[in-house]
Specification:
six-stranded parallel beta sheet, 223 residues, Rossmann fold, globular, 9 helices, alpha/beta, 2 domains
Amino acid sequence: MTRSRAVVFDVDGVLVDSLPAHLEMCVELGHEYGLELAIPSVSEFKRLVRRGVIISPMREFFRAVGFPEDLAHAADQEYERSFAQRFSPLPFAGVADLLASLRSAGIELGIVSSNTRANVEKALGPLLSAFGAGRVFTRDHATARTKKDALAELALELPRSRILYVGDQPADAQAARAAGLPFIGVTYGWGFAPGDEIVPGPVEGSVLVESPEALAAYLIEAP
């Protein structure tokens, strides 16, 4: 017996190791725009997220690292146009096995991400085929452009009591809570660290795990 019938994943920081590439794009665009910014390191950025700094959608990411409002908007548009051409982040080690084991256990898989479809497709490559038709929601989705809306839409189609959302930031926990879904946070991504408390207060069943392997074990073992 498994803990869920459907597991819905955020992408960046959960399935794909993309934070270094996002910070590097901030460096590149800062230079292109003539800004003198001290772009944070990966560890410094994670501390910002843990302090509650808003980083999603990408316009907020650029603002968080120092872009003024007008250039944060311009950078967000450039991100949509060219991130997939400039960078090639890869899935975390263990993600392919994670998805394969969940599918073998009969668990339906979905994606709810604030990234674009093009970026998600490039980063996941053939792993995207693990996710069911109509179960991939991105920021450019036609009907559900926010994580909260996408999770709510999925909850209309799938048994709410057995859907879990997996994310790596407090904002992901908030979206899950707003949709009434249990949340699993990963500590290898952009926001959470081992020992953190999930804030806002978790829906029953919400936990933190430290690796894709630990996530697979938690999801597949009997409750």
